[in-house]
Amino acid sequence: MPSMRSDLQRIARRAMRERGLLADFSPAELAEAQRLDRGVGPLDAATRDLRALAWASIDNDDSRDLDQLTVAEALPSGATRVLVAIADVDAKVQRDSVLDRHAATNTTSVYTDAQTFPMLPESLSTDLTSLNEGEERLALVIDIVVASDGQTEAADGQVYRAVVVNKAKLAYNAVAAWLDGAGAPPPKVTAVAGLADNLRLQDQVAQALRRRRLEHGALELETLEPHAVFDGDHVSDLRLERHNRAKQLIEDFMVAANITTAAFLEQRRFPSLRRVLRSPERWQRIVELAATYGAQLPAQPDAPALEAFLTERRGLDPDRFPDLSLAVVKLLGRGEYAVETPGGGSEHFGLAVRDYTHSTAPNRRFPDLVTQRLVKAALADRPPPYGLVDLSALAKHCTEAEDAAAKVERAVRKSAAALLLATRIGDTFDGFVTGASPKGTWVRVLNPPVEGRLVRGFEGLDVGDRVTVVLEHTDPERGFIDFSRRA
User: Fold this and answer.
1) How much is the pLDDT for 343?
2) pLDDT tens digits, 330-357
3) Domains identified in the chain and CATH numbers
4) The pLDDT of residue 223
């Protein structure tokens, strides 16, 4: 009899195919990956030697595709110099190679509970182009000066090529526990001279960056994504991955790095791919949702006002805040890729920043690899490697493929949840409405944290409404979980 794990793997592969994504690498792609040289090659005069710095990576416990390293330096002025090293994936993956064409088809790595479908073969993404501990790697370094109040001048940031070495591969949860005072420093931190102090300095700078963004209306949302926990090959539970201080540190540095990269391309009069979240699709419903909590939001979209409301709710009811966050995320709508020409200006509503590009994860996102090629061309005083027509087509395709990848990940999560709930037909659950449209009404129950369709009793409900439901049916093969509203 097939195991739950193998069932989910089969479901995941089918979902990839149905959404036009490649689940496997061809023999030609694998052969090209095997032919790649392991070394960094001879360094030219423009490539800086930064191997001696106390670089470290912080990522998920099981991450092997390491895209970024960070390090900081206190300056006499009271400001801090933050360096973010991004893996130079373009050094190994040439444009229009068979590997590049595979990456351009999927545009992203797809992470499911059953298995990961990497954008690049693991011999690259977890080895040759991954910033692995103790390995010399080529990188693009984004050099940012942050004032004590978190202010940065993106136009003053620098971008340059370098060779780096990761001194410590660290994990979010252990670093966060230490920074919060709830645990000892990870052994790899204490093993590297000066790393503990450097990470505390990075944390201090990241908090200043975050405070400044929040003052300007950045939305501090916290959604819960359950992941299957396996006992052998059996799904035994769903685990929630929560945001923590170490994740925030990396997130804040990556936002700053992406803004600096966008400014660099603008200064060089290069076009770029931008990630944008335009005006919320259903602001009026967000206003109505806030009113149910006794809060009043402006009639027109206003990020600072929304963040003030969310901050208040986080303080008053932290346990239920993720539920409210998920409802707001649904109502804000999804971001998209767009082409920005020199002299333009785009805004990311949710981050409260202007001129935002994706540049910090080229092992796992194709738009970041495109941005890397643009940056390297600008550094070498070469013309842009992509024209406006090419970038426009890429923006549309990357948005569609990223949406497809998200649907694959969601489908596998739903199948895992359906497997877990298969023995609980007739049980009652508390939840809230996460989607309401002519296509259907959706509910996320709180324990276990799963989402399903409301097949009866959905009349008059809208996103954010609380509801008690009864589990009617599950179909793990199709990921269906059906609830009815309890009378």
Assistant:
1) 67
2) 787 777 888 888 866 555 565 544 556 8
3) 4-277+334-416 (no CATH), 422-487 (2.40.50.140)
4) 65
Mapped to the 3 state alphabet, what secondary structure does the chain carry? CCCHHHHHHHHHHHHHHHCCCCCCCCHHHHHHHHCCCCCCCCCCCCCEECCCCCCEEEECCCCCCCCEEEEEEECCCCCEEEEEEEECHHHCCCCCCHHHHHHHHHCECEECCCCEECCCCHHHHHHHCCCCECCEEEEEEEEEEECCCCCECHHHCEEEEEEEEECEEEEHHHHHHHHCCCCCCCHHHHCCCCHHHHHHHHHHHHHHHHHHHHHCCCCCCCCCEEEEEEECCEEEEEEEECCCHHHHHHHHHHHHHHHHHHHHHHHCCCCEEEEEECCCCCHHHHHHHHHCCCCCCCCCCCHHHHHHHHHHHHHHCCCCHHHHHHHHHHHHCCCEEEEECCCCCCEECCCCEECCECCCCCCCEHHHHHHHHHHHHHHCCCCCCCCHHHHHHHHHHHHHHHHHHHHHHHHHHHHHHHHHHCCCCCCEEEEEEEEEECCEEEEEECCCCEEEEEEECCCCCCCCCEEEEEEEEEECCCCEEEEEECC
What is the reported pTM?
Answer: 0.87
What pLDDT digit, counting tens, does each position of 78-113 carry? 999 999 999 999 999 999 999 999 999 999 999 998
For residue 69, pLDDT over 50 is answered with yes
